[in-house]
Amino acid sequence: GAEVLFSVDCTKLKGYFLPEKREFDCIYFNFPHCGRKAGVVKNRELLARFFHSSAEVLAEEGEVHVALCNGQGGTPADQPRREWHNSWQIVAMAAGAGFILSDVHPFKAETIHGYKCTGYRSQDKPFCVEGALNHVFTRSAPLPRFQPMSCEIELGSQKVSFQVPQVLVDKINRGFLEASSNHPVRTIKEKLAAELGRAFPLEDADCCLPLLHQGHLSGVCHSNIFWISLSPEEAPGTEEMSNGHVDFCQDGDKNGWVSAQEGCHVSKQCYLRPSLLPDAQAIIQRGAFHPGTLHVLSGPVFRKCLISPYSPPVFHEMVFVCAVNGGTENSCIQMLVNSIKTSICSLHPAASSFKLNINLQEATSFETTELNDLAAFEYQLSKIQSFICVETDTPGSCEKRFCVGIIRTAHHQLGSSELVVVFASLNLDLLAMLICGISDWRMLWTPDRRFLRQFPRGELKLFKSFSLYPPSYVHDVSFWLPDGEELDEVAFHTVARQVSGETVVSIQLIDSFQQSETGRKSLCYRLTFQSCDKALSYREAAEMQLLFRKEINQRLRVTLR
């Protein structure tokens, strides 16, 4: 009952089928080849044209299966693996048409009903399929093309709107912690709250936490902050601010170029909250607390940071605040840590395949270079007594230590009683990554529905990536620094995040040079482009690199070489 067509050009599939017959659930192409002694370049071109053709006739959730001989594909699944330049680069060819590799498994001819191996060019010589692989491709979500976005919020007693920094457009107001969400970050938050509720009376203080802050930030590098400019008519006055502090950002912060209204010649500076700890401190200062009660705050926080797999510019923080009588703070801290350990360990066995140890470590036992961005920022913000650490031990790899939270204490006078306030802060995103085996923070924020399908409500398990062996592209950039100035690395990385839509996965300094005569300094950096969830083609990465060169020239005033 099947319709069979002969002499079909695989690069022009659309022309062989009527419009109503172009929604194929599956397209198979077993052992494509240009014929004769065609080299790898011609066969790459064949694959690229085939994938573009398939995109025109494939159903939205359809699959493209391509079987290749051992080594041809160029992925780590090939054993032995060919050098990338000597392979067919199948994942890169597919990415050009918007496909990602979602599965790869051995090609077994005997399992395919009706399949017959006709031999090498129909001769008696057998066609070797030993070690051959079947590559399964699916459609990717498109790369983001962000449009300017405004956000309206209440600041003090006044409604204000501001321009969202471009690197945060796809991350603001995602609602991961809302009651209707089944995101693993919310699941972990609810589990932590339930476990802590057994040890302490709980009070949720999430409501009405301001997204924007205005006031003094002592001891914090301003280049790590997302500054937002409000026009004079929108900016609240001192009396309208709930914390009673109004401050202005120094005009000299030229790297704060994500501000909302750069054209405003007179403006009041606000900043996106970099932590919930100031909100927790405000609860204590207002006296809006009950001694012995654990107050819980949670929400997204925003920080500029260097690019790395575990350093997002936004993550969900959960803060616990408890005021106790002096001398009992150590038992309070121990109860907090024990409850956190119990809840994480109860989530972990069902999700992860590696050992996970949780412990409390003194701040003095850490070098600042060991700290991730959460801990390093809090270290600047306030005096920290201890870090909450998670150590992972994956078979076949070295043990890694992650700081997932901090604990600090402060003294507070309540009438004639002196209380000790215990603050604890946790990075929920990092916990979700460690528990579910997610190796890249960007996957937590993917718009692809295949991510959340793996986490039915309240259930955590080991994450299985739907994009295997994504192609990576390397580009170098070298430039002269302005005379007498050093490069602001955070601003440099922030430009890369913006122009690439978070597809730059690493930035490495590979060379530096200083002219002895003039003292001018030149730097050379290597950028690696790779998407963990979307198709990224060589052409798209090259266009991002050109835009990056243009932006650092304009924003950071470097001279390109």
TrEMBL record:
UniProt-listed InterPro entries: aa-tRNA-synth_II/BPL/LPL, BMT5-like, Fdx_antiC-bd, Fdx_antiC-bd_sf, SAM-dependent_MTases_sf
Residue ranges of coiled coil: none
Pfam families to which the protein is assigned, alphabetical: BMT5-like (PF10354), FDX-ACB (PF03147)
Gene Ontology annotations for the cellular component aspect, listed alphabetically: mitochondrial matrix
Chain ranges of the FDX-ACB domain: 468-561
Compartments it resides in: Mitochondrion matrix
Domain of life: Eukaryota
GO molecular function, one term: ATP binding
PROSITE patterns the UniProt entry points to: FDX_ACB
Record's keyword terms, sorted: Aminoacyl-tRNA synthetase, ATP-binding, Ligase, Mitochondrion, Nucleotide-binding, Protein biosynthesis, Transit peptide
Single GO BP term: rRNA base methylation
The enzyme's E.C. designation: 6.1.1.20
Catalyzed reactions per annotation: tRNA(Phe) + L-phenylalanine + ATP = L-phenylalanyl-tRNA(Phe) + AMP + diphosphate + H(+)
Protein family according to the UniProt entry: Belongs to the class-II aminoacyl-tRNA synthetase family.
Gene encoding the protein: Fdxacb1
Protein name: phenylalanine--tRNA ligase
Protein source organism: Baryphthengus martii
